[in-house]
Amino acid sequence: MTIEANGPNLAERPPCVLNVDGDPAALCTRSRVLHAAGYAVVEAGSGAEALRLAGETTFDLILLDVLLPDMDG
Questions:
Q1: Which end of the chain has less Cβ packing within 10 Å, N or C?
Q2: How far apart are CA 59 and CA 71, in angstroms?
Q3: Exposure pattern of 4-22 as b/e (b: 16+ CB <10 Å)?
Q4: Percent of the chain surpassing pLDDT 90
């Protein structure tokens, strides 16, 4: 049994990925692949939205496109 220092048992929840991309088709495609692989996925279509979400939630991984509509990734 693996337990994070200040969090839930990792065996009880899938890893959570923040998927950030300004291209809706790319965002959707990547999210579908990640969901199929067993990840929990949260999507953001802009840098501002990604920063807000990252401040509210702890993610195991952030996939960030470098060309976002409002800022550079």
A1: N
A2: 21
A3: eeeeeeeeeeeeebbbbbb
A4: 77
